[in-house]
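Notes, p. 3: input format for complexes.
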Amino acid sequence: MLIGVPKEIKNHEYRVGLTPTSVREFVAHGHAVMVETNAGVGIGCNDEDYVAAGAAIAADAKDVFAKAEMIVKVKEPQAVERKMLREGQLLFTYLHLAPDPDQTRDLVDSGAVCVAYETVTDSHGGLPLLAPMSQVAGRMSVQAGAHSLERAHGGRGMLLGGVPGVEPAKVVVIGGGVVGENAIYMALGQAADVTVLDRNVNVLSHLTNRFGAALKTVYSTREALERHVLEADMVVGAVLVAGAEAPKLVSAEMVKAMKPGSVLVDVAIDQGGCFATSHATTHADPTYIVDDVVHYCVANMPGAVPRTSTYALNNATLPFGLALADKGYAQALLDDAHLLAGLNVIGGKVTYKAVADDLGYDY
Ligand code: NAD
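Output follows (363 residues plus nicotinamide-adenine-dinucleotide):
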C-alpha cells in the first residue's frame, strides 16, 4: 500500500503522523511511504531522516493526497485537506467529529474511509490512542505547575520538593485516571507531598498498589475536596466524566479562600474545566491570576512537546496502522472489533453512533 504523510497545517500543530522510525516499519512490511517535505521539522526530523528510513519526499500535500491509498495524520483534516480526499481513500487520524458538523459533512461527501484515533478501543474499556496524550498532559501538568509556583510567575515561591529541613509543596490531584496517575508519578518524583482524590475506590486501590505509602489517597466528597484544596499549594484538575462536560468541583468561593500564590492546573479544560474560575489559555500566554491564585489552563498541553507527543502517539497507532496497510481496511476492521470502533465514516455514511445521533445522520 502507498501511505501518505502530509505536513500538519492546523495553527501551531508541530506533530506529524509518522516518525521516521514508524516509516521504517511500514517499509519493512513491504509498503511505500510518501512524506511531504518538511513534515517532520516540528519534531526535529528532516527530509533526510525520512529518506534514510525509506520514504519518498513529496513536494506538497496535493501530491500526497493525490497518490496515497492511506493518509496518516495527527489533527482532523482542515477544509483545504478535505477537498483533496477521494472515494475509498483511507484516512487515519484524530477526527473529533461530534462537535464539528462541517468536517463531518465534508468527510461524508468525500466517500473516504475515516478511522478516528479517539474512538479506537482496547480490551480494558480504555481508549488506547487517546491515552498517550493524557500521559503527556499528566506529566506536563506538574512541570507547568512547578514553574507557576515560582514567585516571578505569581506563585508562592516554593520548590515542589522543598529541601532538607524545609517542607515540600502540597500537591492535590483530583481524578486518578491516566492524567492523574502520570501527574502523581512526576510530583512524587520531585518529592512533593501528594494527595489524590477520586470517586472510584478501584482507582484509589490501584494507585495505592502502585505508589505505596508515599501517596495519600482520599475518596472524593464535597467535604474532602474543600479541605484538601484549601490546604494545597498546587491542585491538578484531572477528572473526566465520559462524554460529558467536566464537573465544576472547585467553586469560585473555594478559589478565593485558597492560599495566595497557590496554583491550579486545569488539565480537564478541554472538557470545560473543573474549576469555576478556569478559562482556556494557550501556550503563548498559559497562565492568569484570579484572587491571587495562578491558573494554568492550556487546552492542548501535548502541543508544547511535539517530539515526545509524536513518538508516544506513534507507539500507540503503529500496530493499527500496520494492520490497515497489511490487510487492507476491510479485512483489518473485520478482524479487530477495537479498530472497527474507530470507524467513523465510510461510503458516505456516519458509522459512529454518538456522532450520527449528535449531528442528525442515519446510523
Ligand atoms: P480518565 O478517564 O483516565 O480519568 C478520569 C478520572 O476522573 C477517573 O478516575 C474518574 O473516576 C475521576 N473522576 C470523575 N469524576 C470525579 C469526581 N467528581 N471527583 C474525583 N474524581 C472524579 O481520564 P484522563 O485520560 O485522565 O483525562 C482527564 C482529563 O484530562 C479529561 O478531561 C481529558 O480530556 C483531559 N486531557 C486534557 C489534555 C490537555 O491538553 N489539556 C490532554 C489530555 C487529556
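The chain has a mean pLDDT of 96.
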